[in-house]
C-alpha cells in the first residue's frame, strides 16, 4: 500500500492567477514585439547598426561561450553588469546550470549538489579562495550571498592541478567584478518589493506582509598622468523579507524518539499488542527503549527480532505554524590598481550578515502509547511499516518555539600579479574567510492533564486527526506540565587563512605553450562551543504555583498564565494546499462533528510571554544561558594544508585537428589537530593495592588528538576542435573530499573494568569511549569524463557527456589504538570510532545540455543529468553495522531492516529547463527545476537516514527595458507551491512536509 496517493496537483488561487498572467503577458507582448521586430528590420535596411544582445539571450550566449572556451568540463553564468544574474540568489542561479540541484530550506535554494552528488563532495571558492560556513560541514549556504553582487558563477566538473583541492563532484566558483577589467563607469540601484501569498494569511508578529531587497553598486576607473590606473567597485544590499512555512512533522530519527515498534499480535510483552497500556518500545516485563532489536543473536546469527513485523512510531506527530523574518545585509568592495604595465593589484572584501527569526506554534499529539485491544487491532500500515491509520489515547500539547539564527560571513583577499618578463608572470595571493553563527531558542510546553482519545488517517500528503470530546482551540485545556527551556546552541566559528604563490611561463614551443606551478598554505579552524547540552547550554524552568496552593488553585493559576499569554491563531488556510480539508475534526461520543475545535487551527500563545511568566513563577528573570570554551562539548579543530602543483598547457595540431588542454599534478599534505576537554581524574590506590579512577567534575583538563595524510592528485584535460562547430572533450583527475570539520572533534573518556580488582593501570583502564576522529582520512576518487559538443551558432549548443567516478572510501566503525598519557606514562588503548575504509564503489552518469533560439525570439535551454551508483550508506540504528577489531577481523553488530542509503545528497535524476522570449526590450522566461529523491544527512546526527522526496519547482521572470537607464522586473519562485516532503529511515515512512507557497518579487533597476 502506498503512503501517498498519486493525484493531479491542484494549484492554489494565487498560483493559478500568476500562471494565467504570465501566459497572457507572453502572448500579448509577443505580437507587439514581432511588430517591433519588423520595424527594426525595415530601419536596419536603411541604417545598419550593431545589435547589443542583452537579457536571457545574452546570459545563455555567455553560458555557451564559457563552456566552449574552457579546457575543463565547466558550466557557468556571467552577467554583463553587476546585478544582471537572472536569479534571486546564488542558489537559484546555480540551479539553472546543467547537473546542479539544491536542497531547499524556507522555500529557497541553499546547499548545492553537482551531478546529483551531495554538497560535502563539492568545494566552493570565492574569487579563487575557499569559503567558510556555519553548518559544521564543508557545504556553503548560498542563500547567504546575494546574486546582485556577483559577476560570474561557474561549476567546474573536471579539475586541473592549479585548482584548490576538495571537490570530488566539482568546484563552485563565484567571482566579483574586477573594476579595471570591467572598463566602464556604472552606477546602479535596484529596489524589489516582495509579497508572499502565504504570508498574506499570517498575522506575523515579526514582520509585515510586504518585504523588500534594495541593492546599490558603483564601478569606476581613474587614469593618472604617470600611466597608473585605479578601479573601484562597491556594492551593498539590504534584504528584509519573510519565509512563510507551514509544516507537518513527526519525531526525527536523530536521537531515540523514533522507533520500529513490534507489530506482532502474538507478542503481548512489547509493541502494539502489549498486555498493558504503555509506550510501544518498552517491554511489559523487561527493558525500556528497545523496539525492534537489530543486535545479532549469537545463537542464530540473525537479529534478535528477525522476522517480527513492525511499524514506525515517533514520540509524536505534530503541526507547526510559523511566523518568520529574514533580514540580510551584504556589502562588497573591490579595488584594482595598476601602477604600470608590469603590475596588477586586486583587493576584494565581502561581508554578509543574515538574521533569521521564527515564532513557531505547535500542536503535538503524543502517540507512542499502545492501548490493549485498540491500538494494535486497528493499526494500518503500508509495506515498509509506515503508519496509515492509528487509534489510541495520549496527551496533546500546545507548544511553541522562538528561534533565531544570526550568521555573519566575512571574506578578504589581496592578489598581486607581476608580469616580470614577456614570458614570466608571478602571482601572490593572501586570503581570509570567516563565518560566525549562533542560534537562540525558547522551547515551551503546555499539555493536557489527562490522556485524550484520538485517531488519525493519512491523507494524500499529510495525516488528519479526529479527537473525541476535546476542543484543541480552547486554551484552558492546556494547563498541565508547563515548562520552558532557553537554549543557546550551535555557536560556531569557521575560519580559513591562506597564502599562495604561482607562476606562469610562456614557452616557445610548437606543442607546449606554457607551464604553471605554485605553492599554497592554508589553515582552517572550526570551533563549536560546548555547554550543559553538548553543543550548547540549556536553562529549564517548570511552572511553580504559589506555595501552599490547593490542586484547584494550582490549576487556576496555570490557566491564568495561559490566558494571559494567549494569542489568536496566526494563520488562516493553514496547510490548505497539502491537506484534504480540515486537519482536525472534533467529534462527540456519538461520532457527531462538533464545530468548535474542527478546522485547521488550535490554541496558541506568545512564546516570549509564556517563557517570562514560567521563569517568573520560579522567582527568576528569563535569560539565555552562557557557553564556555573549556567544556566537554566543545569542538576545536585546526586543519593545516600545504600544497604544490606543476602543470603544462598544450595547444597544437594533431591528426589534422587542433587540440588543447593541460596535464599536471598536485601534491597535498594535511595535518589535523583537535582539542577537546574532559573532567580531571585521579588514579587512587586502595589499602589492598587495588586501583580506582576518580573523576573531578569541578576541574576540566585539555586533551589533544590529531592525524595527517598526504595525497597525490594528477589531472589531464583534452579538447579537440573536431570541426569549426564540434568539440570533443575528455578529462581525468584524482579528487579528494575531506571529512566535515564537526566530525574531526576529539571527545574521550576512559572505560574501567569494575568486575576485577585491578592493581595496575593497564588492568584498571581497558578502553576509551568518545566521539570524533581527527585521524579520518579523506574520501578519494578517480574521475573520468568524455563529451561531444556541437555549437551550430552563438545561441545554440547540443552537448552530451558521460562520466565515471570510482570512490576509494566508505564509513565504518573500527577499533583502533590511541596513545594516552596517564600518570606520566603512555598507554595504547582501544577506541571504536568511525573511520574511512578502503571499500570501493562507483558512480556512472550521463549529462546533456541543449540550447536553441528561433528567429521569433523564443529560445529554450535544457540540462539533464542521470547517475547510478553502488555506494551504500548504512543507517547506524536500523541498518547493517560492522566493527573491525584490532586484529583486522570484522564482526557484524546489527542486522538492519532498512536498505542502505546512497551517497549523501545523491539524486538519480536532475533536470532544469527554461523557455524564454527575449527580443527588443522585453525579456520573459519560464523555468522548471526537478530533482529526484535523495538521502540528506542531518547535521546533528549524520549517521541516520532521511530522504527528501522528489520535487519539481517552477519559476518565472519578466523584465522590460523602459529606456537606456530604467528596467522593470517581476520574478516568482516556487510558482505552483511545490512542498518539500521527507521520509525517515526508509522511503514510504513520512516524516515531514514543508509547505512554502510562492514568493513574488517586483522591482525597478536604474543604471547610469
UniProtKB/TrEMBL annotation:
It is found in: Cell outer membrane. Residues 453-975 form the TonB-dependent receptor-like beta-barrel domain. Residues 67-171 form the TonB-dependent receptor plug domain. Keywords: Cell outer membrane, Membrane, Receptor, TonB box. It holds the Pfam family TonB_dep_Rec_b-barrel. The keyword Membrane applies. Residues 274-309 are annotated as: Disordered. GO terms for cellular component: cell outer membrane. Residues 284-293 have a biased composition (Polar residues). SUPFAM superfamilies: Porins (SSF56935). The keyword Hydrolase does not apply. It comes from the Bacteria. Belongs to the TonB-dependent receptor family. This is TonB-dependent receptor. It comes from Alteromonas portus. The lineage of its organism: Bacteria, Pseudomonadati, Pseudomonadota, Gammaproteobacteria, Alteromonadales.
